[in-house]
Amino acid sequence: MGKDYISIGAAPAEEMPVQVGHPDYYRLAIAECNRYIRLIRRDLGPEPEGARLAIKAFPHDYGTYHEVVCWYESDLPESVKYAHRCEREVSSKWPTITMEDMRARIVDPLEQLAISQFAALRSRLEGHQCSQQNDKNCKCWFCSTSRLVTEGEELLVRLRNLQ
Q1: Residue 113 CB neighbours (<10 A)
Q2: Count of CB atoms within 10 A of residue 124's CB?
Q3: What pTM does this model have?
Q4: pLDDT tens, 79-100?
Q5: What's the rounded Cα separation, in Å, for the pair 78 and 54?
């Protein structure tokens, strides 16, 4: 049973990875390699038995650089096949994120969270009274929270109208 690896790279083939020497190289390189591993798994599926995607450090004249590798067991044909597919069949560019994707993955869930939080605050405000309720300068919890919820709901309406 022989264990070996294929070096895949730090980023898709047509993309420029973060360069050794960048002041924040280690953090950015690890984040980029992790993103690349997610892309490989998206394109090829999870690793079969005996294969494992990982980040490996390599020495270089200018410091240590990091790349994604696929470890495989030479006596497990599916793991060898997967490793070679990583070399040949993975996207050569980062995926393009459309505004629709961004809205579905980020904006919609945040909007739903804000709506539920505003509703929860509104329910807590019910039944509370303040003697200075109509005073815009009142700093009590009831008045401050009421103004915040109203402003937040108005902001959500304006944001929806921008799209």
Answers
A1: 10
A2: 13
A3: 0.63
A4: 999 999 999 999 999 988 777 7
A5: 17
